[in-house]
Structures are given as structure tokens and as C-alpha cells.
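Narrative of activities, Objective 1.

The group set out to show that a structural description can be obtained from nothing but a protein's sequence at a throughput compatible with the screening campaign. Below is one input-output pair from the validation batch, recorded exactly as produced.
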Amino acid sequence: MDMPVEVTKEELEKDIQAVLKELDTDNAYIRIIITRGEGEIGLDPALATKSNLIIIVKELPENPSWWYSEGVHMIISHTMRNPKNAVDPRIKSGNYLNNVMAINEAKKLGAYDAIMLNAKNEITEATTSNIWVVKDGEIITPPVKAGLLGGITRKSLLSLAKENSYNISERNFNEEFLKSADECFLTSTTKLLVPITKVDNQNIGTGKPGPITLELLKLYKKANNI
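Output recorded for this entry:
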């Protein structure tokens, strides 16, 4: 992106601590944004001057218990995930337009969130979380090359599952495979593991949170002292 980050790690840590002190809470959500800076109107990056650092913090409320006891309803979005040769989904940027369009579609249909496909009609991820399925005892999540942001929780769960001898893999699958799965769930830093019990108008498995999903949630919470 040719956008130099002028703040050091030590300065960033100091600024985060200062903002957290003002908030004064034990459980906080932190968003760090670095912009290219001000300048004349135009697309040329050279028009911007010194970059800006913005730190946003808020108290992080406890997640609803029904997410884990009942599971959530998702849809398959008609909005395609950005292809890697356009805006690479691996880049953690503020360019969320297609994610916004997808979750807006989900909300209009009364769903919790949307699952997005790539140009090959393969599952990538949800708007702000990674997607997993369980089929015949195998835990499967799409590979990063499918066009997704490899989340921290995703990476952690892959390692944790392998350490505990679960049959786990990263490979591509489509909408039909997802809907035929025995279990399905999403992962994110703030949500942990949330069972997905319905996609579009079709129940996943029994329509209730699956046993392997709940086992992994328990294992993840124990490993992270949650």
C-alpha cells in the first residue's frame, strides 16, 4: 500500500494504555486505525501528508447466551467476496463495502449474518468471522487462498484442534456441502465459537448446536482462561 506506519510499537502500546485508563473497564474492545493522512482531494497517495493514528475503545459486553445454546441463522449472500486480485481479503483495511452489503442483506431477511462466496462459488467467510463445518467427524474450514482473512481465533483453533487429535483440515467446499454438514459454526475474537444451526431456510444437522462444536468451544475457553 506504500503507506508508512510512523508510530512505533512502544508508542502505540503507550497510547492504547492511556485510552484504556480513561475507559476504566476490565473487558474492552480496541480498534486501531491508521490513515494515510490529510491532503488535497484526489486518488494519488502522494497527496497525503503525515499519517493519522486513531484508537477507539469501548466496554465489551457479554455475548448473548442463546448464541451458544440455540445457535444462529445465517444466509448465503448474493454479494461476492472481493477477489484476491482486486482488494485482497487478507488485508485488514477499512474497505468493508461488500461486507456491509452482505450483512445488510442478512438483516433484511431476519438472519444473524451472511456467508460469502468467491467467484468459484466456494465458501469463504462471514462478514466479520470465519466459517467451519463438521462432516462425518472431520472439521473443515476454507483455506486462506479461497479469499478470506485468516483470523486470530481461526489460527488458534486450528492449532488447538490438532494438539487434541481432532481430524481437522483446510480445504474448499461449496454451499451444498455446507448445508449437508452435520454441524457448522463461526469463529471470531469477540464471539469465540458460535454454532450455526440454520442457513437460508435449511437446518444444519439436527438444527441444534452440535457436540463437536460445543466440545471445541469448551476447549477453546479453557485454553484461553475465558
